[in-house]
Amino acid sequence: MAPRRLVIVDPPTGKPITAVN
Fold first, then answer.
1. 14/16 Cα distance (integer angstroms)
2. What does each C-alpha distance from 13 to 5, 6, 7, 16, 21 come to in angstroms?
3. CA distances from 9 to 1, 2, 5, 15 (A)
4. What whole-number distance in Å separates Cα of residue 14 and Cα of residue 3?
């Protein structure tokens, strides 16, 4: 099974952050 990939875009920076749990 592949790990969960959560993509969050920071409002202040506007850069997409990919967090792999």
1. 7
2. 20, 17, 14, 9, 22
3. 25, 22, 13, 6
4. 25
- Residue 18 · residue 7 · CB < 8 Å: yes
Which residues partner with 9 through β-bridges? 16
The DSSP-derived string for 1-21 is -PPPEEEEE-TTT--EEEEE-
pLDDT of residue 21: 57
1-21 confidence digits (pLDDT tens): 566 777 787 788 777 777 665
| 5-9 and 16-20 strand pairing | antiparallel
